[in-house]
């Protein structure tokens, strides 16, 4: 996949920017708690405002990309990010709370742009491997970003750390603008992408199923992080949480690489269901060595599940609305991450730390069941269909050279096909 023209610089720039974006919440938390000497609740409010902005802004920015082009949107987001992160160290708390929402609303859409570019740069038969590699890049960003911010905050001021995070986001956005990757394949430029189909023609039950499962996997992962900390805190071993999270991340990378090399895909609902099932018994671990072992199964399934979500969205969305569709995927993931911690936290408070793993796993199972039922009840339509173009004609299972999105129970019959 790295031999595909433009793929290596795209993923490299994406890794830099996504590492910074995954660490932005930690940078704001460190600033509010350390520099402003306020509570973690106050820091959580700032992070919640930023997350809410990201969730609402994803589809809007994606729609702007579809209509105005990539560089226009990047220019409209890079400049506000530069201003925001430069101003963070001098803003009083009340103003920071408000502008954090605006900054989230105009967050540089690195993740959705990367997914659109991958869909445009690869053929149907190679797209699954490409999205598996993209999910590996996402896992690397989680392993690198937050720990670097924590380490730097201990050595320098939180304000300088905020500047560093903002600089990486801005450099990533400018790098993508200079690279200017294609967001539509050559055969889409004058055909399918020429007309923008109505939302009801592509945002049907199958797309809702994929977005629901993207929400579910994000909620599960957010809950697992909290359950790990709660379990080790009860055991008096909270300092080992970083080791457990690192094991989780490394096994996820291994799982993504293995899944991308497999000859046949697996449906998203099945991967998510298995992820939920193996998450629940992780609560039986009582100390950090056993918890490292317990999270291996969930780690191996994380990146494959994320990659199938991204793959399915790219196939179900016609080229003319692919930006909006990937924006909706990012919004679903942001909502899942925002909701996962409080739901799992409530389960932990009401029971024991093991209840956190159970709540996270059950959330994944519920999302998988919902996605399965929705995909069973809807006709299998893929991007490139007559319906996607808005033209009359019978609905077809596939178009030449395109495999169905792997979200239903029996669509893995043709050519092999995240958030």
Q: Could you give the topology of this structure?
A:
Elements: H1 7-35, H2 40-68, H3 70-87, H4 93-105, H5 110-121, H6 124-155, H7 158-179, H8 186-189, H9 199-202, H10 205-234, H11 241-261, H12 268-279, H13 288-294, H14 296-316, H15 322-350, H16 353-377, H17 386-389
Task: State the gist of this model.
InterPro entries: MFS, MFS_trans_sf. By secondary structure, the protein is mainly alpha-helical. The chain has two domains: 183 residues, Growth Hormone, Chain: A, CATH 1.20.1250; 225 residues, Up-down Bundle (Growth Hormone, Chain: A), CATH 1.20.1250.
Helix-and-strand structural type: mainly alpha
Radius of gyration: 21 Å
End-to-end Cα distance: 19 Å
Largest sheet: none
Order of helices and strands: HHHHHHHHHHHHHHHHH
Structural domains: how many:
2
The CATH topology of the largest domain turns out to be: Growth Hormone, Chain: A
Percent strand equals under 5%
Mean pLDDT: 83
Identify low-pLDDT runs. 381-406, 408-419
CATH hierarchy class name of the largest domain: Mainly Alpha
CATH-level-2 architecture of the largest domain: Up-down Bundle
What share of residues is helical? over 70%
CATH level-4 homologous superfamily of the largest domain = MFS general substrate transporter like domains
Based on DSSP secondary structure assignment, what is the total number of beta strands? 0
Q: Work out the helix count.
A: 17
Gross morphology is globular
Keywords: Membrane, Signal, Transmembrane, Transmembrane helix
Biased composition (Basic and acidic residues): 410-419
Pfam family, one: MFS_1
InterPro entries: MFS, MFS_trans_sf
């Amino acid at each position: 996949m790295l031999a595909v023209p433009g793929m290596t610089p795209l993923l490299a720039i994406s890794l830099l920017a996504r590492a910074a974006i995954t660490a932005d919440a930690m940078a704001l938390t460190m600033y509010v708690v350390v520099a402003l000497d306020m509570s973690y609740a106050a820091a959580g409010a700032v992070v919640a405002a930023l997350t809410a902005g990201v969730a609402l802004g994803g589809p809007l920015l994606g729609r702007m990309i579809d209509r105005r082009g990539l560089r226009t949107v990047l220019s409209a987001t890079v400049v506000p990010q530069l201003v925001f992160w430069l101003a963070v160290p001098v803003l009083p708390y009340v103003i920071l709370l408000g502008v954090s929402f605006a900054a989230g609303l105009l967050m540089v859409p690195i993740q959705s742009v990367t997914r659109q570019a991958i869909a445009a740069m690869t053929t149907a038969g190679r797209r699954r491997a490409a999205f598996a590699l993209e999910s590996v890049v996402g896992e690397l960003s989680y392993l690198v970003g937050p720990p670097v911010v924590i380490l730097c905050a201990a050595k320098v001021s939180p304000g300088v750390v905020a500047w560093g995070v903002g600089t990486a986001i801005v450099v990533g956005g400018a790098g993508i603008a200079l690279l200017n990757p294609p967001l539509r394949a050559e055969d889409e430029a004058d055909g399918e992408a020429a007309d923008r189909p109505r939302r009801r023609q592509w945002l049907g039950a199958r797309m809702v199923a994929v977005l629901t499962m993207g929400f579910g996997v994000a909620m599960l992962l957010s809950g697992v992080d909290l359950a790990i900390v709660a379990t080790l805190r009860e055991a008096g071993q909270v300092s080992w949480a970083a080791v457990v999270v690192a094991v989780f991340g490394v096994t996820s990378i291994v799982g993504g690489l293995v899944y991308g090399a497999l000859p046949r895909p697996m449906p998203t609902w099945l991967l998510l269901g298995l992820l939920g099932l193996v998450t629940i018994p992780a609560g039986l671990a009582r100390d950090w060595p056993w918890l490292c072992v317990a999270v291996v199964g969930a780690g191996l399934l994380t990146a494959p599940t994320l990659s199938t979500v991204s793959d399915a969205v790219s196939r179900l969305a016609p080229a003319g609305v692919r930006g909006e569709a990937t924006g909706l995927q990012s919004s679903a993931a942001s909502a899942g991450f925002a909701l996962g911690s409080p739901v799992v936290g409530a389960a932990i408070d009401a029971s024991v730390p093991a209840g956190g793993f159970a709540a996270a796993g059950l959330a994944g199972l519920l999302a998988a069941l919902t996605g399965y039922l929705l995909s069973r009840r809807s006709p299998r339509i893929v991007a490139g269909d007559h319906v996607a173009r808005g033209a009359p004609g019978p609905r077809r299972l596939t178009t030449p050279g395109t495999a169905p999105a792997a979200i239903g129970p029996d669509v893995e019959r043709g050519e092999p096909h995240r958030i």
